[in-house]
Amino acid sequence: MVLADAPAGVSAQPARAPVVVLGGGVSGLVAADMLADAGERVILLEPYDRLGGNQRSANIGPYTFDIGSFVFFSGSPFFRRFPGAEAVCQPARIVVDRITPQRRISRYPFSVPEDLLRRGPAEVARTALSLAWGRIADRAPRSAGSFARYYLGRRLFVESGLEAYIERLCGIPADQVEHQFAVKRMNWIARALSLDTAAGLVRPKRDAAPAPTVLVRPRQGFTHLYDQVAAQLRAKGVSIRLGASLTKIERVAGGFEVSIKGGVVKAARVISSLPLTLTAQACGLTPPPIIQSLPLLSLYVAYEGDLGFPSEVLYNFSPTGSWKRLTVHSRVYGKVDGREYLSVEAPLARGPSAPADEFAAFLAFMREHGLMTGKATLVGHDRTDFAYPTYAHGSMAASEALIDAVEATGVEMLGRQGRFDYIPTSSRATELVAERLGRTGREGAAVR
Prior knowledge:
alpha/beta, FAD/NAD(P)-binding domain, 3 domains, seven-stranded mixed sheet, 17 helices, FAD/NAD-bd_sf, Protoporphyrinogen oxidase, Amino_oxidase
């Protein structure tokens, strides 16, 4: 079966085949909108039954939980492109903290008073010596570990909990993680400790632009936000097909045939924001084993009692425990029947794990730290594949080679998943799509 791409009719010349965009996450949605604005006929194919990619909500009884960050900023590039989505978001105050190796609640990702000054002159001196040695021993960054030691020194790197957090996030020790990942993920270290920042502390301050308002997804969940995006795309003529699992991409005369669940779509151009390995396999390529992404287990918890910490978001920088972040939705949207409710994220670095076991381990960790001593109930869970690209040494070079091989077939790759890239925000994802499509010709020949 070949899916019709245009209404039947009598025409001397057939309509030009559409551009197919694979993936309905932020990058795919932005690409579809830009292409529609450029006059292209666009078909967006999304394997899930809803838009948003890995940014999604789960409605369980009276609770709405999230996978992925639910925080945005007013006037961001994504919202400038999709103003209807911004209109349904709500302002919020979000405090982000972390549990340190010393079992304290401290500001995320780093606090000079908490992590250094309050620990006394002797600790400051030891940290200064460690930093001085780091500037000598790690002046040629080779890994995320050496990058952090150069800017923080080994002592502060370990004592702040950053070393433990990197291993939990990536599933491998920091010294096995590519240096390029640190440049993207931990550039706040370089900014915080740069000479320009230090000079700014004593330099007279000029009038600064007002900070953007912090926004969160609507109370109904991410589906309501992405419904606004879908409405805008459809108004521009974009065809959106959900549940369209990709199986094969073939180059044929005049373009491509994209095989999906339910049929085949003919395309003049194919742009993929799906995971790089999935797209490569659809093109008949074999991804090297070093290109890996960690799956993520999300636990959905209802809670009665005092949580024991004040923040809306809490990260685990302790050397123990497999969970990495929790989000207290009830502190943003209000309690349900007097109960708090929160999402807890645990990267499955050690392989599959039973949700009940992860929940028991999480609860034991919290109570050991004097937190969440009331009644906690696991009300649901989700598993997200391709949640976090792992950046073991050699993986970035391998991913770049695989991207080249995929794009040699004519398929273009975009986004965090498509380019095996760490992209921290929807704003940055939007900017990167605009840059890449701006360097791409009408026939899809990317300028590299």
